[in-house]
Write a structure and sequence with these properties.
86 residues; two-stranded parallel sheet; 1 helix; 22% strand
């Protein structure tokens, strides 16, 4: 499995930080407050975008994360962080 696991202390993801990470399958967000995303943090929405097939988010923050990271995953790809096994 190819994944990126963000810590609970994450406050921002820089511009184009994960753009071009085409093999990313799983993104795990642990922060209780949605981090700030730089321009095109996960790509530009086109063929250069990172699109994980599973995104773990804190159980009660699905909507907040859905609004913030709509460009990489819709809510149907979200899984409860409590079910994540590292």
């Amino acid at each position: 499995m190819r994944l990126v696991e963000f810590s609970t202390n994450l406050i921002s993801i820089g511009s184009a930080a994960l753009s071009g990470c085409y093999l990313l399958e799983v993104a795990v967000f642990k922060a209780r407050i949605m981090p700030t995303l730089g321009d095109y943090a996960f790509g530009n929405g086109g063929s250069n975008s990172t699109r994980p097939s599973i995104v773990y988010v804190p159980d009660d923050l699905f909507n907040e994360y859905a609004v913030a990271i709509w460009n990489i995953a819709d809510i149907s790809k979200f899984r409860s962080l409590s079910t994540y096994e590292s």
